[in-house]
Amino acid sequence: MSTPSSRPASAPASGSASLRAGTGPGGRRGALGPVGLVLAGGVSVQFGGALAVTLMPRAGALGVVALRLLVAAVVLLLVCRPRLRGHSRADWGTVVVFGVTMAAMNGLFYQAVARIPLGPAVTLEVLGPLALSVLASRRAVNLVWAALALAGVSLLGGGGFGDLDPAGVAFALGAGTMWAAYIVFSARTGRRFPQADGLALAMAVGALLFVPLGLAESGAKLLDPVTLGLGAAVALLSSVLPYTLELLALRRLPASTFAVLMSLEPALAALSGFLVLDQALSASQAAAIALVVAASMGAVRTQVGRVRTAVPEA
Q1: What count of Cα atoms within 13 Å lies in the side-chain half-sphere of residue 122?
Q2: In b/e form, how buried is each residue of 168-198, taking b as 16+ CB within 10 angstroms?
């Protein structure tokens, strides 16, 4: 997922600044390598999410989030070694809000996948970045993408979400809202902190928030060696590995192409849910996911076209 699921890279709502940042050396030539890195990162995230679902009976949803954020924070802090001095109050305020948003996004998403299948959960979650992209673009064509997305959601819910747990649907939509906020504060944090320092500090904030919640829900279960090992695997698959792959890819891949690839998240989630969790989708659910993926890709391409048109005019 983004899980969110849960990633430093923005999905369909990458801002114009990030779109311009990706247009450097490496353009179309040699793009197969970066594309492979992005797809590998996406597969890693979604299979990490599937592994997290299998861990929930042992550690609970809050416990899984606590383990994931804690391990990821430790790894990122050790690798980045962010400087703590020399930052303004506004800098720290931004990184704290970023951490809170990240924690909320993860917490809501794992509550969702504890109740509904992984594919539909990611499909509902991606509506947050999609809505942000549509609103930011302000172009009439985005009404088409919004209509496609709404059609997909309606199809996914069978007209009333009768086949999906209502609480799970609400949690997934809440995670999508937090994902949209995460994208905004991720960009702000990136402008205020060098390299991945802000991400490491925000991850630490999220871990500090969730470790007490995880302990309250699961207590000593979190200290079980098997649970710790699986939690570390979730953190590596869902956070550390994809972050690294995506950072490497974005050095050679235009961010516009990256955002389109991120639109495949619901399909990858459905695949991992089927392979790992035996969560088969009905024909209507598969069609719904395809509609949302198409809407997400269309919104990204529209945003990219707007940015490319604006640059020559400027």
Answers
A1: 33
A2: bbbbbbbbbbbbbbbbbbbbbbbebbeebbb
292: number of Cβ within 10 Å: 30
- Spatial separation of the C-alpha atoms in residues 217 and 209, rounded to whole Å: 14
Q: Which of 192, 170, 199 is CA-nearest to residue 91?
A: 192
What is the rounded average pLDDT for all residues in the chain? 75
Tell me the per-residue pLDDT of 197-226, one tens digit each, with 9 for 90 and over.
888 899 999 999 999 998 888 888 888 888
Residue 172: closest CA among 10, 291, 4, 288: 4
What contacts 24+ positions apart, CB below 8 Å, involve 23-26?
23/254, 23/255, 23/256, 24/251, 24/252, 25/252, 26/251, 26/252, 26/253
The pTM of the whole model exceeds 0.90 = no
pLDDT tens for 13-62 read 333 333 333 344 444 444 447 777 778 888 888 888 888 888 888 888 89
Return the structure tokens found at 268. 């990858």
Per the CB < 8 A criterion, the answer to whether 171 and 112 are in contact is yes
Nearest CA-CA partner of 263 in 127, 98, 84, 70: 127
